Every structure is written in structure tokens, then in C-alpha cells.
């Protein structure tokens, strides 16, 4: 039961961190603070501290936005996300200063190769035309298994929103690089 309460509180705190803080009514903000103080140490959320942020909490937060619709040039969960708006929103809720533009992610974090990618890294792709080798899309590594890499992103394709996709075929041909921010 404590784990369920901790997960709910973590989601509320993560969703209300930074700019989004005003979406939680003041009376509930105080209630959440009191509940968090009374949680066991291991159950307390660790958001807004980049040194303590782990990939699991980052992915859990990103996953909470599955299905939010795609909307060009937007980084607001109430209105929708474009790809870089989604990635930027997720990382900024954990205290990271990241770009708002997919092209700027190329010079953010530490570049690594696909074989050394880890959950929470940012994948950088071309736009929808893989022959034009210019940055046009970003997503976050969601999982890495023997079956391959999955990533979470805001897609303008058939999903038309935040979705989880395999890094294969279409996206593999569009892949440009990986950067680690965590």
C-alpha cells in the first residue's frame, strides 16, 4: 500500500514540478508535502535533483504521458507535444536544462554510440525523409532488451501522440546518434 501511495505522490510531484506547479491547487500542494514528509525515506520522490534522477523515474514520468496527442511546436501536456517538446518537458521536470529544439539536442549531453546506449538516453533522428540527413526528431530510450531498443516519443505519424516504438526499420534508417543527459 505504501508503494502505491508513494507512486501516486511521485507522479503528482513530478507532474507539478517547475512550471507546471500551478496546476495543482494550493490546498493539495500542502497535503502532498505533508504526505511526503511522512513517507519512509526509500519511498520519497527524488525529482528536481539531477544527481539523484535515475532512468527509471524519468521513464515512469514519461510513460505517464502516453497517449497525449501530437501538436506541432507545443510542450504542454494539456495541449499536446511535438517530439522535442515532449523530451524537453520530461527532462525539465527533473531539473535538467535541455533544448526545446530537436536540432539543439545534437550538442547537448555526452554523445555515445548505439551499442552503449542506456535507458533515459536521447535518440536523435532525421526528419521523416531519411535521405535528408538533418536532425528532425528526438525520443528517449525506453527499454533495451535482447529484442532491441524501444523509445518513447511524441510522434506525428500514425500514433499521433506520445507512444512507444521499436528502433527498427523506418526509425533505424533515420537514426543519427545518441546523447546521454543523465
Condensed summary:
The protein is an alpha+beta fold and 182 residues long.
How would you describe this structure to a colleague?
This protein starts with a helix and ends with a strand. The protein is built from five helices and eight strands, in the order H-H-H-E-E-H-E-E-E-E-E-H-E. Mean pLDDT is 81; it is low at 11-25 and 31-51. Helices cover 28% and strands 24% of the residues. The chain is globular, with a radius of gyration of 17 Å. Keywords: Hydrolase, Protease, Signal, Thiol protease. It comes from Pedobacter chinensis. One of its GO terms (molecular function) is cysteine-type peptidase activity. InterPro entries: NLP_P60_dom, Papain-like_cys_pep_sf, Peptidase_C40.
Keywords, separated by commas or semicolons:
182 residues, alpha+beta, endopeptidase fold (from Nostoc punctiforme), six-stranded antiparallel β-sheet, 24% strand
β-strand number = 8
Q: Architecture of the largest domain, according to CATH?
A: Alpha-Beta Complex
Q: Can you count the helices?
A: 5
**Overall tally of domains:** 2
Query: What topology, given as strand order, has the largest sheet?
Result: 3-8-4-5-6-7
Alpha-carbon Rg, integer: 17 Å
At the first level of CATH, the class of the largest domain is Alpha Beta
**CA(first)-CA(last) distance:** 30 Å
The SSE order reads: HHHEEHEEEEEHE
Going by helix content, strand content and strand pairing, the class is: alpha+beta
The residue-averaged pLDDT reads 81
**For the record, what is the CATH homologous superfamily label of the largest domain?**
endopeptidase domain like (from Nostoc punctiforme)
Unreliable parts: 11-25, 31-51
Q: What spatial form do the alpha-carbon principal axes imply?
A: globular
Strand content: 15-25%
Q: Which topology of the largest domain does CATH recognise?
A: endopeptidase fold (from Nostoc punctiforme)
Largest sheet: 6 strands, antiparallel
